[in-house]
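Appendix B: complex inputs.
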Amino acid sequence: MRERGSPLFRRHRPSWRAPVELLSFGLYFLCAVLLVLSRIGHGVIGDARDGLVDFSAPLLEVASLPAIQARRAMDRVQLYLAAFDEVDRLKKENDELKQWEWRTKLLERKVAHLRSLLNAVEEPALVYATGQVIADARGPFVRSALINIGRQDGLRIGYTVINGDGLVGRTVDAGKSVARVLLLNDLNSRIPVLVGPAGVRGLASGDNSAELQLDFVPEGAALYPGDEVYTSGSDGVLPRGLRVGVVAGQPGAYKVRPYAELNSLDAVSVLFFDTPALTRADSPSPVDDARALSAAPVEPSNTTTASAALPVAAVVPTPGGQAQAER
Amino acid sequence: MTKFLPALSVLFAVVATAVPWGLPADATFILPLVVVMMVFCWGAIPGAALHPAAAVGLGLLADIMSGGPLGYWALMCLIAATVGGRTGSLGEGHNLVKHWLIWSALAVMLGGFGWLLASLYYFRWIDWWPIALGAVASIALFPVVLYGLLWIRYGRLGPARGTIFRGAS
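Resulting structure:
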């Protein structure tokens, strides 16, 4: 039986009903205009978006704290549950790494000797800053993340973003205190890569799914599932030798499975790797000059240097450095 | 305060969509569609419909936070607010099942339209699976969200609860 006297079932009509038809038409038109302006990449839209994202960053940072803590707690519980298996795995891995350590020391000595014979120029160290992911992008269009490092920290558009596992993406928008990172699996992401021990060239393209497509691989190239994929640096934007992932899939439809867990990013590091292409696209401000670096690094207080000399997995921050750089 | 409840609750949901929950890539469409569903649901609650301009503003905020094209979620929210405002509210000859059916049809329509718009925007066919998953999830979540919003609006529903969930006529 319906309760006529209940406030829930009292007849209500919004007071704004009369002019709403005209207003709705105007709002539909506004949405269409904004979509078109967004598509053509109008500068006003970009600037307004950067400003608003900067403005909302403290709110997002606070809102994401419980989610981040909950995720860490769940990870910890999973770790405890799998502790015995993990210890066995780590013991085995440690034995293998001891053998690798011995081989690496031999190779390091050999490389140092050859470099001195060739009088080779020392490669510049990379400087990086570590921050936190404060927001995820959700929707059919974009796979991106907001991080709490911005222009005030020396960040610029186009910088490479990595985490402990490998390449994560690159910065596409930079506000004063936050930046947007375009993830590897985004529809607009294209990474020139080298595949396998032979260094076969290819292009890892995102398609908004968990894995990347591997395109433009030379005809007849010998690729195998499990082959390492790392950046080639041929785009003049990304440093060479950063770990991307491993080859997966079937011949003819190879994919790249990224090392980085792109759905649950937490702490990420931005490499301050300046190239002429980046300098043209987003010229450094006076603030950047004091912090950003490439050939002549100036180490800021909240950044850490890392060697880019290794062929794969070039940037591995030391635990002390990581803690110092973390915000 | 009651006047601003719809806008505040949707604002809360918009912020929640941007929080890094660690959801899988296929589930990225679920949370924004819940926001759109909330805009629709407020239209079903007597005296609580969200003004179209507020719906567009909150949609734009979702666009800004997601980094997607400006106007996309604003358009979705505006469609939901328009349909929700014209559907009539609970107790005016409508019950949960009727609103659920209308939302189901709207979710399918919004999913198809959203997919087409996204494909047009990028000049390539966007993967339809996450959008379909989002639409199905939003249809399944409809009673939960509507009940939650009724609770936000009225607190404990009491005897009215049975009327809403069994039928109002």
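Chain A has three domains: 19-81, 92-121, 124-327.
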